[in-house]
Amino acid sequence: QVQLVESGGGLVQPGGSLRLSCAASGSIFSINTMGWYRQAPGKERELVAHMISGAITNYAESVKGRFTISRDNAKNTGFLHMNSLKPEDTAVYYCNADIRTRDNWLRNYWGQGTQVTVSS
Questions:
Q1: How far is CA 78 from the centre of its chain?
Q2: Residue 95 burial by CB count (10 A; 0-12/13-18/19+): exposed, middle or buried?
Q3: What's the mean pLDDT when you consider all of the chain?
Q4: Which of 33, 75, 79, 111 gives 95 a disulfide partner, CB atoms 3.0 to 4.6 angstroms apart?
Q5: Number of neighbours of residue 58 by Cβ within 10 angstroms
Q6: d(Cα 9, Cα 20) in Å, to the nearest integer?
Q7: How far is the C-alpha of 24 from the C-alpha of 35, rounded, in Å?
Q8: Neighbouring-strand partners of residue 19
Q9: Position 56 confidence tier, pLDDT thresholds 50, 70, 90
């Protein structure tokens, strides 16, 4: 009954910016953690950024200083602000969250993925 719906991906020129969003809906009591992952062609999925209860826990070295993870708790929505984008950032980006449901189960969920393409 819980779903993560991503938006904000698309085509952007090198040096540009995008903001990805991840809206959680369903029988949600709380979102304990939220993170963003990405998978480029021919590569394994990697962690981009992770946040626990409003505290930033980790950024990939390749995105530090350029990407920022945030949350709007009232709207059960997470964001990934991406600045100074590089062609190497091209990937499918996935939202991931540990969500406590209203029946008190803590479960992990993935979004469907959104394509980010950085190209001139």
A1: 7
A2: buried
A3: 94
A4: 111
A5: 14
A6: 6
A7: 13
A8: 81
A9: low
DSSP 118: E
Q: In one letter, which amino acid is 31?
A: I
Task: Pick the closest to residue 99 from 25, 28, 47 (CA basis).
Answer: 28
For 53-105, the DSSP string reads: TTEEEEE-TTTTTTEEEEEEGGGTEEEEEE-S--GGG-EEEEEEEEEEETTS-
CA–CA distance, 27 with 15 (Å, rounded to integer):
39
Handedness of CA 46, 118, 8, 68 (dihedral sign): positive
Residue whose structure tokens are 């946040």 = 51
Burial (Cβ within 10 Å: 0-12, 13-18, ≥19) of residue 23: middle
Q: Which residue has tokens 């990939």?
A: 60
Paired tokens of 84: 């100074």
